[in-house]
Design a protein that fits this description.
- The chain is mostly helical and about 90 residues long.
- It is built from two helices and no strands.
- It starts with a helix and ends with a helix.
Length: about 90
């Protein structure tokens, strides 16, 4: 019974922390999407070239890689929580 109470308390404390991470991730995704849209517009205009264009493309690739890593981390965390909950049932 004590283990169940401790498990419930740990889960209750962990849920708000997980929710905050998802909100932060969503905000970062929106920011990255906005920056990617601006970069795409600059590419369509074709007004820049050389180092500015290369630098912008490198930043976009880094943003996309970070987004993918963030989503993978979130998916793993969700799968771990689901597995943990399935085992405890």
């Amino acid at each position: 019974m004590l283990k169940g109470i401790i498990g419930a308390l740990a889960l209750a404390l962990a849920v708000p922390a997980l929710a905050d991470d998802k909100v932060k991730d969503k905000a970062k995704d929106v920011d990255n999407s906005m920056k990617n849209t601006v970069d795409d517009a600059k590419d369509k205009l074709g007004t820049d070239s050389g180092t500015a264009k290369t630098k912008r493309h490198a930043k976009k690739a880094a943003r996309n890689a970070k987004t993918k890593a963030r989503h993978t981390k979130s998916d793993v965390k969700d799968a771990t929580e689901k597995a943990k909950n399935d085992v405890s049932k």
